[in-house]
Design goal:
Layout lengths: L3 H10 L1 E4 L5 H11 L10 E2 L2 E4 L7 E4 L6 H4 L8 H8 L4 H6 L2 E11 L22 E2 L2 E2 L4 E6 L10 E3 L13 H4 L14 E2 L7 E5 L4 E3 L8 E10 L12 H6 L2 H7 L9
Antiparallel strand pairs: 1-11, 2-3, 3-4, 4-5, 5-13, 6-7, 8-11, 8-13, 9-10, 9-12
Bound molecules: 2-oxoglutaric acid (AKG) and fe (ii) ion (FE2).
The site of 2-oxoglutaric acid has 8 residues, from strand 8 and strand 12.
C-alpha cells in the first residue's frame, strides 16, 4: 500500500526507490526469457516484440515486452507498484468513476552496453500533459508514472539512471542541460543536483516522467538490463503504433486486459 512516507517523498523528490520489488525468482524468470532473444536491429521483430532505439546510443529497446511471456504479464499489475501507480495517476475514489483503470502506454526491456547512455530530458518547466506532475486538493493527477526495474545490479559505471530530485516542479530548464543532452553523461560528470540511482536486481525506480532524468554512460563491460512500464490514465494512447496481439488479450486476466487495452470502440452501426 502507499504509505505517508511514500506520499511525502514522492511529492518532494518526484521519485521513489522500491527496494526488492521483484523477487530473485521473478528476475530470474524474466532474464531467462531475455537470454533467448536473438540479436535484433531496430525495426526487427521477435514474435510480437519490436526492436527499437530512441536514439542510436542509448541502448536497444525490446518494445511491447509484455508480449514475451507470463513473467512480463505479471509486471502489468505487479503488487509491488500497482497501488502506487494508481494512486499517483489519480487518487483512489475518483479514479474508477472518472477515467477507468490505469493504462500502459509503453513497455520495454532496455539493454545498455559500454559507451551507451540516455541524455538528460524532461523537467517540470516543459508542462507536457502526458508527463505532468500535478497535485490538487491533496490528490495526485500525474500523467505518467514510470516503473524502471533493474534486472542486473546497477552500480558505478553501469549506466545507471540519473534523476534531479525536485525537478518535476521546476519552472526553469537546468542551466547545464544543453551540455548533457544526448549521450554525454560520463559517469562522475553529471549535472549539478543530479543523483545517480544505484539499484540491485529486482529494485524498481518509480518516477513521474516530468522529473528531469537520464543516465550516466556505461563504462563497465557487460550490459545493463532494465524493464520500463509506463502508467497513465486510460484515455491515453500508445506512444508507438503497437497494438496488443489477440493472443495476449486472450491470455490476460480482466484487469490486465483493461490495462493494455482499456477502450474497445463499439462499431458505429
Ligand atoms: O535508461 C534510463 O536509465 C532512463 C530511462 C528513461 O529515460 C525513461 O524510462 O523514461
Ligand atoms: Fe525518460
Amino acid at each position: 500500500m502507499v504509505t505517508d512516507h511514500d506520499i511525502y517523498f514522492f511529492d518532494l523528490q518526484g521519485y521513489l526507490l522500491l527496494k526488492g520489488a521483484l523477487s530473485a525468482d521473478e528476475v530470474g524468470a524474466i532474464n531467462a526469457i531475455l537470454d533467448t532473444a536473438p540479436p535484433l536491429k531496430p525495426g526487427e521483430r521477435w514474435g510480437n516484440v519490436q526492436a527499437h532505439w530512441y536514439n542510436d546510443n542509448d541502448g536497444l529497446n525490446l518494445q511491447h515486452i509484455y508480449e514475451a511471456g507470463e513473467p512480463f504479464e505479471k509486471l502489468i499489475d505487479h503488487p509491488s507498484w500497482y497501488e502506487h501507480a494508481k494512486y499517483f495517476v489519480d487518487a483512489q475514489g475518483s479514479f474508477d468513476s472518472l477515467h477507468g483503470p490505469l493504462y500502459i502506454d509503453e513497455n520495454f526491456a532496455n539493454f545498455r552496453g559500454p559507451g551507451e547512455a540516455i541524455g538528460m530530458h524532461s523537467g517540470g518547466h516543459i508542462g507536457t500533459i502526458r508527463c505532468q506532475f500535478r497535485v490538487l486538493n491533496a490528490k495526485f493527477h500525474c500523467g505518467q508514472i514510470n516503473i524502471l526495474t533493474a534486472l542486473s545490479d546497477i552500480g558505478p559505471g553501469d549506466g545507471g539512471t540519473l534523476v534531479i530530485p525536485g525537478s518535476h516542479k521546476s519552472n526553469f530548464e537546468h542551466p547545464e542541460m544543453a551540455s548533457y543532452v544526448m549521450h554525454s553523461n560520463k559517469s562522475g560528470q553529471t549535472p549539478q543536483g543530479a543523483v545517480e540511482v544505484h539499484m540491485n536486481a529486482g529494485d524498481a525506480l518509480l518516477f513521474v516522467d516530468a522529473l528531469c532524468h537520464g543516465s550516466t554512460q556505461r563504462t563497465n563491460p557487460g550490459t545493463r538490463r532494465v524493464v520500463v512500464y509506463r502508467y497513465g490514465p486510460s484515455w491515453g494512447r500508445s506512444r508507438h503504433d503497437y497494438e496488443p496481439s489477440p493472443e495476449l488479450l486472450d491470455r490476460l486476466t480482466p484487469l490486465r486486459r483493461q490495462m493494455v487495452n482499456p477502450i474497445v470502440p463499439k462499431p458505429a452501426i
